[in-house]
């Protein structure tokens, strides 16, 4: 079968192609759980991760350097924090839309690392081939997650997990080098006090035979000739050998009488090592180490499958540098965010379960305060920075008692303006001087959302306030018929009608059967009285309104 045909092969399952039409929600900061530097860009998001990824898409597409996710493994085992046994086809259907948005978020030189075990790893590999392109597959890393065998195993004792690695574009992406270890550097000595520093002897022979590499090397100390063994040859030419001897780069042993060796100086070797695909627990930790780390922040409820900080340290070291954005949309106990914080990366962590507050929040708070667990001592972590805690806004539209969609009463004017900007692809950025400039899509293209009945007089006033070349989209609940098409540079749309059938409103859970949070009782049916433009402006500056992130 040709490579061309292989590229067309796709995984098929029940439910494929029935991806949800996601509502692009806005994010609202919860100051009670934000901590540290108020100017931080680090984000901890509590909410359904598919909706949260959709909320991030507009502002973060193409900006995330490294994504690490540890999705539920679909093993059929019941975990305390996750019901990790979703039917196989459903598991694939849940993964596909998440991976598709994650791909959009990756920068061109970015990569994604996915932890998985044998139950779904091979299906996930084919699914990732579909989403990221088979040509962008990097490697399958094997992580030794535990040391002792499971004596109750029916077949073989499972001692490893997989980490699938894909690049956005393999031709562009290159991993960083791992730092050299003290043990590696200690192999370099300087017995002859060479001014170029420590060195170690290396072989002067090469396996590929060439007649030009067969000649005698003369020891300048004794005049003795050294020929390469029969069937082999020197890796350097005779002229190069002479220059290296003159430059004191050839070593003839402690007594100066043995065969030639080349001096490999520590200062000239690659200052790092290429990572292998087999990661042992001694290098990057195991499950037991990870559980001990989690217990530092929550003794009463420990995750079943946390990841050790040293494992994430290895991944982030290879796939990012200081200041890069790291994302984990299955944050779990908060390991990725904690490690990214200590390593000077910006991060976005998403978690649906209540452990966003019980595990992630106290852990990241302790990191800001300078806790000394995990990799802290290795990276000389002293504390600092901060993070902001966000929740997803409720669905923009809800049905009233007559089964008609209306604007959710939970939305204040600021939230509505931000939500409509996101729905229409605008950047929510209210102008301090012009109340109607609530968002922009370009330097001269603006959006204005109001619940006030739009009259011709109000429209004319807006038009008179616009500069030549500017255009405006007005989203309102109702308007005079005479307003429609009155000005070529002003477009008017009616809400909620403009939004119907655009996406799936009213759904808050696209989860992997993760334990749902208790829901507050719904509010009484809200009054649909229009809000005036002046009221909108008054409320925009109210100190009681929640902080929005759009």
UniProtKB/TrEMBL annotation:
Question: Does this UniProt record's set of keywords contain Metal-binding?
Answer: no
For the DNA methylase N-4/N-6 domain, which residue ranges apply? Answer: 64-355
The chemistry this enzyme catalyses reads: a 2'-deoxyadenosine in DNA + S-adenosyl-L-methionine = an N(6)-methyl-2'-deoxyadenosine in DNA + S-adenosyl-L-homocysteine + H(+)
The residue ranges flagged as biased composition, category Polar residues, are: 529-550
Q: Where are the transmembrane segments?
A: none
Where does the record place the region Disordered?
Answer: 519-550
The alphabetized UniProt keywords are:
Methyltransferase, S-adenosyl-L-methionine, Transferase
Q: Which family does it belong to?
A: Belongs to the N(4)/N(6)-methyltransferase family.
This protein is called what? site-specific DNA-methyltransferase (adenine-specific)
**Native source species:** Epilithonimonas ginsengisoli
Q: What is the lineage of its organism?
A: Bacteria, Pseudomonadati, Bacteroidota, Flavobacteriia, Flavobacteriales
């Amino acid at each position: 079968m040709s490579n061309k045909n292989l590229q067309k092969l796709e995984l098929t399952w029940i439910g494929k192609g029935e991806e949800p039409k996601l509502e692009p929600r806005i994010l609202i900061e919860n100051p009670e759980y934000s901590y540290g530097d108020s100017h931080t860009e680090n984000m901890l998001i509590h909410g359904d991760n598919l909706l949260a990824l959709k909320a991030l898409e507009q502002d973060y597409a193409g900006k995330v350097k490294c994504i690490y996710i540890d999705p539920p493994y679909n093993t059929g085992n019941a975990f305390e924090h996750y019901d990790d046994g979703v039917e196989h086809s459903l598991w694939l259907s849940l993964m596909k839309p998440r991976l598709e948005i994650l791909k959009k978020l990756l920068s061109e030189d970015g990569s994604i690392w996915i932890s998985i075990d044998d139950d779904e790893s091979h299906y996930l590999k084919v699914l990732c081939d579909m989403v990221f392109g088979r040509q962008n597959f990097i490697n399958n890393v094997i992580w030794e997650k535990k040391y002792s065998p499971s004596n109750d195993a029916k077949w073989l004792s499972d001692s490893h997990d997989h980490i699938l690695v894909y690049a956005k574009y393999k031709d562009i992406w290159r991993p960083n080098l791992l730092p050299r270890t003290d043990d590696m550097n200690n192999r370099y000595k300087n017995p002859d006090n060479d001014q170029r520093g420590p060195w170690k002897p290396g072989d002067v022979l090469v396996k590929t035979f060439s007649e030009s590499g067969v000649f005698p090397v003369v020891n300048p100390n004794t005049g003795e000739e050294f020929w390469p063994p029969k069937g082999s040859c020197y890796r350097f030419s005779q002229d190069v050998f002479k220059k290296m001897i003159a430059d004191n780069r050839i070593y003839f042993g402690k007594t100066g009488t043995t065969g030639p060796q080349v001096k490999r100086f520590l200062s000239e070797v690659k200052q790092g090592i290429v990572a292998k695909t087999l990661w042992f627990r001694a290098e990057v930790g195991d499950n037991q180490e990870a559980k001990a780390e989690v217990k530092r922040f929550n003794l009463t409820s420990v995750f079943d499958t946390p990841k050790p900080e040293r494992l994430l340290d290895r991944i982030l070291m290879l796939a990012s540098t200081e200041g890069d954005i790291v994302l984990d949309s299955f944050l779990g106990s908060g390991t990725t965010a904690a490690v990214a914080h200590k390593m000077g990366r910006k991060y976005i962590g998403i978690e649906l379960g209540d452990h966003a507050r019980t595990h992630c929040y106290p852990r990241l708070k302790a990191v800001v305060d300078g806790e000394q667990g995990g990799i802290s001592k290795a990276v000389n972590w002293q504390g600092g920075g901060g993070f902001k805690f966000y929740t997803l806004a409720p669905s923009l539209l809800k049905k009233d008692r007559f089964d008609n969609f209306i604007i959710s009463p939970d939305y204040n004017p600021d939230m509505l303006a931000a939500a409509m900007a996101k729905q229409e692809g605008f950047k929510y950025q209210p102008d301090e001087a012009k109340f109607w400039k609530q968002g922009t899509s370009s330097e001269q293209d603006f959006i204005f959302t109001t619940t006030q009945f739009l009259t011709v007089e109000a429209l004319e006033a807006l038009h008179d306030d616009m500069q030549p070349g500017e255009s405006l989209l007005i989203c309102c609940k109702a308007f005079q018929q005479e307003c429609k098409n009155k000005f070529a540079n002003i477009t008017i749309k009616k809400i909620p009608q403009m939004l119907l059938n655009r996406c799936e409103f009213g759904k808050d859970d696209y989860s992997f059967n993760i334990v749902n949070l208790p829901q507050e009782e719904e509010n009484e049916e809200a009054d649909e009285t229009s809000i005036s433009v002046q009221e909108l402006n008054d409320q925009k500056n109210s100190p009681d309104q929640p902080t929005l992130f759009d």
